[in-house]
Amino acid sequence: MMNMKAMILFTLLCLPAISAAGTLSWMAEERWVTVSKVYDGDTFKTRRGEKIRFLGLNTPETRHGDEPGQVGGKQAKVALTKLILGKQVRLRFDKEKKDRYKRTLAQVWMRDGLWVNGWLMRQGYAHVYTFEPNSRWAKKLLQEERIARAEKLGIWGTARFQLMNSRHISNKSIGQFRVVQGVVGQRADKKGWGFKLGKLNISTPKSYRKFFKGPPNLKKGQKVIVRGKIRISSKERLFLSLHSPTDLELR
Catalytic site residue 231? Predict the structure, then answer.
């Protein structure tokens, strides 16, 4: 039978393997980093040089070189800098951990439990920006945005980002990300994946339809809100594409 000293030695030898496995599992889900630099309202760098992009949201652009900043961009950067610069924050991840620019995509928490992504949304510094399959926190972020929109906080109190009526869409809006409200008009296709919203043609690209439960069950005259970039087709028609279920809100 193994004596007490042998049992202790055996246990100590097993601990590193167990600890390593546990650490790897934990690291895959979340980890702590120290913020060394804030680039703008939705991107920062860690002490180890890793670039972190807040997942599920977007803030107005700050000035880059000769490019002027957008309304609200400087305010978002200043607020985020005061909140997280030099602090330890906890990162949590969704299905895809990197974007096309090799930045780490994360939900971020402070030591005191403050959810920074939700805070940015609730203060009106950001708008929901969901790209599938990263939608784990999308509904919660949308709830925070709705409150900020209703109270016209931050960007929602400006002409550039305020809720826009579909009747007021024009060529001046081309290239802009907008949150648009309007009344559903005629269907654009028999399967129900497209419809008219004032001057806008709303559609869901085939590659994104798998993220929806099915074509949106909308009736003519129903009030909705859509979000996305305003574009113009080869036939000079203004359109907006839905990429996630959170891009369409029923009123």
Answer: no
